[in-house]
Amino acid sequence: MLKENSFVDDRITFKLLINRIPAQRRKVIFVLLASALSALILALLASGVAYGGRSFMPISRIDVTEILNMERADILARAGIENQTYWTINKADVRAKLLAIAAIKDAVVEKHFPNTLVIKLETRKPAAMVMSLAGGAGVLLYVDETGKVFEKGRASSNMHLPLITDARMQNPYAGAQFPFSVVALLKTISNISSASLSHISEIEINWKIVGEYRLDLYDLIIYPKSASIRVRMNAELDDAYIRRMLLAVKTVGEDPRYSTDEIDYRSHDPAFIPKGGAR
Q1: What CATH architecture applies to the domain 61-123?
Q2: Domain boundaries for CATH 3.10.20.310 within the chain
Q3: How many helices (H) and strands (E) does the chain have?
């Protein structure tokens, strides 16, 4: 007995006599139906792109690996992906907008079909706090080892970082870049252990001046936490150099014969400058 499947339209009944169709012909029919379905899907996709995809396959999931000190909504708004869909988002454009944020060092943007956007951020890590002047007032800047200013104005959260003064940036703002001479100091500091830096309260840049001109050269004035004595040092700091400096400060502090508020440690042997003496 034949098997029958009936599909009823309001007026006509179509009887598909399945067993009467040869197996090879059934395969051909199935291939044709699959091809027609694929063509229909491609047509729908093309129409979604052609009409801007405003309501076609919207992004329903956005993964951000790091949020910095910014709100997630602010990052997404700056990236320009609000009200966008899988088809309209341009990864290169989103990455360029993210890199325009001073605190972001690098960004990777990935689209995962059909509705997911993944944003992987590498944020700038502070190498030091730099005190600069703006409008006659001191401004605290957070700077990475490349000399890029990426944040300003917050003094409480990273006070364990070394403080650099007299860097003399004329117009401090997030995204500003310090010159090579200051970057060299930042790279030097990044190679010093936190244990050594923890003994220093301030590193002042002492620019060399000839006549009316300030050279792009300097030595440093170090202010140890253990004593009210400043120490003049070369710019080539390292852990061993700092340990020797701290030993000299300790010696001065423990020996009543010394009456000094400054040590010149730019040569192999420290010079103890008496209070009120020439510098």
Answers
A1: Roll (3.10)
A2: 61-123
A3: 6, 14
- Angle at which helices 91-99 and 72-79 pack, to 10 degrees? 120
First to last CA, the chain: 116
pLDDT tens-place string over residues 28-84: 666 777 787 777 776 665 555 444 444 456 777 778 877 777 788 888 888 988 888
* Residue intervals in the chain for CATH 3.40.50.10960: 128-274
Burial class (CB in 10 A: 0-12, 13-18, 19+), 210: exposed
Q: Phi and psi of 82, rounded to 5°?
A: -65, 140
For residue range 84-116, what is the model confidence (pLDDT) as tens digits? 888 889 999 999 999 999 999 999 999 988 888
Write the CB contacts of 177 (distance below 8 Å, at least 6 apart in sequence).
147, 148, 149
- Coil vs helix vs strand at 249: helix
Assigned CATH for 128-274: 3.40.50.10960
